[in-house]
Amino acid sequence: MTPPLGKDLVGLEPLSADQIRMILDTAEPFKEVSERSIKKVPALRGKTIVNLFFEASTRTRISFEFAEKRLSADTVNIAAQGSSLSKGETLVDTARNLEAMRIDMVVIRHHASGAARFLGERIRSNVINAGDGTHEHPTQGLLDLLTLRDKFGTIEGLKVAICGDVLHSRVARSNIWGLLKLGAEVAVCGPPTLLPTGLQSLGVTVMHHIEDAIQWADALNVLRLQLERMEAGFVPSLREYNRIFGVTKERLERAPKDIVIMHPGPMNRGVEIDSDVADGPHSLILPQVTNGVAVRMAVLYLLAGGLPDWRAQSGDDR
Amino acid sequence: MNDLLIAGGRVIDPSRGTDGIADLYLVNGKVEAVGRNIPVGEGVRRIEATGKIVAPGFIDVHVHFREPGQEHMETIATGAMAAAAGGFTGVCVMPNTDPVIDNQAAVGFVVRQAIRAGKARVYPIGCVSLGQRGLQLAEFGEMVAAGAVAVSDDGHAVASSQLMRTALEYAKVFGIPVADHCEDPTLAAGVMHEGIVATRLGLKGIPAAAEEIMVARDLVLAELTGGHIHLCHISTRGSVDLIRRAKDMGLNVTAEATPHHFSLTHEWCEGYNTNAKMSPPLRELADVGAIREGLKDGTIDCVATDHAPHHYDAKQREFDEAPNGIIGLETAIGVAIRDLVDTGVLSFPELVTRMSTTPARIFKLPGGTLAVGAPADVVVFDPGRRWTVEARDLHSKSTNSPYLGQILVGQAELTTVGGRVVFERGVEKTDG
Fold it and tell me: Most buried among A207, A233, B186, B296, by the most CB within 10 A?
């Protein structure tokens, strides 16, 4: 039987709308597993999963680790520092070594765009992209979609503005693909120095004023502005960025609709988003994190060959 | 003895304006006669060229042979063999080796290695600046005396306008071109063309402006100094427009374009294909169209492959990490016929002009002509032969080509240098 997602999850761009919906549908019941006192289902028992993180990450790695353990898989974490990876071993050799150890699945985060696909083309294990350079972060895109769907009931026709450093953001790209495929209206908002070329050709609206985005959108997905961007001259200062582009309580008060605020984290409070917004009534930031584990469980489960109606398959009787 | 009669082919020699079925008689390393029913001496080897095109050997003014220092990718010997297999009788090698070719001893080394290889003629290009560091002029005079035919810091742009001005003025003394890799270094910190494909792939882009800014700068300096500026691997339509205007003004500027820049676009980077990564990068369809137009109307003087071998391991990397460049000598004629002649952009005489006549003229090299008395540097190629590019058939030490597995049209059958057969298809890997 052909696996419903193929061998690897490299991004949302190659997926169809049906495949994305299937992942979200599969994630819904996995949310409930995380509410139990014994947070375990046997679906991936006996499977070996390696979390191969070339870039430091706490939130994403832990989220994947919980997802893997709640599915009863055996997990191993490899961080770049203190391993042969930092001794200059190539990605090709790393791939071959993993395959020789008969790893079932690899979750990879890497600084180079295309790294997940590179690995997936060279090993038989399932490869899940946990973020490759500025290319995609598909599980983040999926959990953002799930969060929006939970709140609004549907993605179709929803107006979502992705605000901030879209140019360097893999989260933004995954969101753009996922939202467009599910029928949302997508806009990006930020200074031109932080927006990539060609988005209009995809049907994305480009805005340069946060006030316009707030007027228009049902939801804002606010991206982190990194210190390096200021140092590299994309914006003159973080202070100016907050003054001109920051999502602040005052600006949100002028929103015509009951707008929701999302953020992939980690947040730079006081730069792209103010604390009273992040912690305020419009914020869906914590539900995003909860949904992250469920979405990752769904992805791992489906790639391992699980069928979407997993309850019957795995013998779970709750 | 070495004398040859190449019989019955379509002999195209734009230098003399001739194009017709004829025999070509080569004696003692020179063109003896071109015509019909030429009386030949005894024991002369006869090569049947019916259905083939016979032309002055192709000349590529921009290749990289990686010797000294990076011989695992290519050597002067293997590169000269690859050139011969591609129908090239002469190539100019860029100096960005390790160490670089910035002094007379290094130039002499290249000359000697080329003689030992005994395949296509290899002409050294010396550095513009010592160490290619862009600060101080190399000794043009010494390098020319040792055999250099031009100067270039290719691999890098000459960022300092002051240095480029001085180089253009000083080069006038020796009558050599200064070949510039046109790229504003502060705008070029990317790995592919800046556009929708880069956005989708999450790769940093290099805008066309990075090249056009330096092209404009070099043209202004050419006007100021009257020196001969040769613009390497032109890739954008804006650059073509600038060069066209400069030539209309009568400036002493020449330009080259690679086969990949008149045949491939940035979509080839999809899937993170590192064999589509080079500098300057593959651009958009409109740029490809402009390069073809430029080759047609002479704005772009010649085809030059920028043959840039890289070891298999080096290209088996993440796209960001892979080095720039692809090989091109053995696929040039196949791409050119498929994408320039068969598409109606150029006729065969026009193609031979761009691949032989003009490069010889602008770099003042022997060859590029079949006039009586000229060196017997000849290519016989099959203009209609469809062939699939396979790594194992390539003579280059490296196989980094986006054309692997592609079907090309046209292939060299026989190449002679100084009347000696240096390549003959079907008689593979000869030493003679």
Answer: A207
pLDDT for residue A309: 63
Instruction: Give catalytic residue positions of B.
Output: 306
pLDDT band at A36 (very low <50, low <70, confident <90, very high): confident
pLDDT at residue A98 is higher than 90: no
Answer yes or no: are the C-beta atoms of A53 and A77 closer than 8 Å.
yes
Nearest C-alpha in A relative to B200: A135
Cβ–Cβ < 8 Å for A25, A308: yes
pTM of the model: 0.91
- Interface contact flag, B202 A201, Cβ < 8 Å: no
- Nearest-neighbour CA in chain A from B98: distance (Å): 22
What's the pLDDT score for residue B430?
47
Query: Under an 8 A CB cutoff, do B316 and A92 touch?
Result: yes
> 3-state class of A118 per DSSP?
helix
Closest-CA residue of A relative to B206 is A197
Measured in angstroms, the CA of B288 and the nearest CA of chain A are apart by 19
Report which of A41, A46, A45, A32 is spatially closest to residue A312, judged by C-alpha positions: A41
Which member of A13, A112, A136 has the closest CB to residue B319?
A: A112
Q: How many CB atoms lie within 10 A of CB A202?
A: 13
The pLDDT value given to residue A318: 39
Task: Report the residue of B187, B201, B267, B283 to disrupt the A interface, i.e. the one with the largest count of A CBs within 10 Å.
Answer: B201
Nearest C-alpha of chain B: how many angstroms from A86?
A: 15
Surface of A (160-199) touching B: CB under 8 A: 170, 173, 196-199
A92 and chain B in contact, CB less than 8 A: yes
pLDDT tens, A268-313? 999 999 999 999 999 999 999 999 999 999 999 999 988 776 554 4
Tens-digit pLDDT profile for residues B40-63: 888 899 999 999 999 999 999 999
Q: What is the pLDDT of residue B432?
A: 40
| Whole-number pLDDT of residue A79 | 83
Please give the DSSP secondary-structure letter assigned to residue A126: E
Residue A315 has pLDDT above 60, yes or no: no
Q: Which long-range contacts (CB under 8 A, 24 or more apart) does B197-201 make?
A: B197/B266, B197/B267, B197/B269, B197/B270, B198/A196, B198/A197, B198/B266, B198/B269, B199/A173, B199/A196, B199/A197, B199/A198, B199/A199, B200/A13, B200/A173, B200/A198, B201/A113, B201/A114, B201/A135, B201/B269, B201/B270, B201/B272, B201/B319
Are the beta carbons of A163 and A190 closer than 8 angstroms?
A: yes
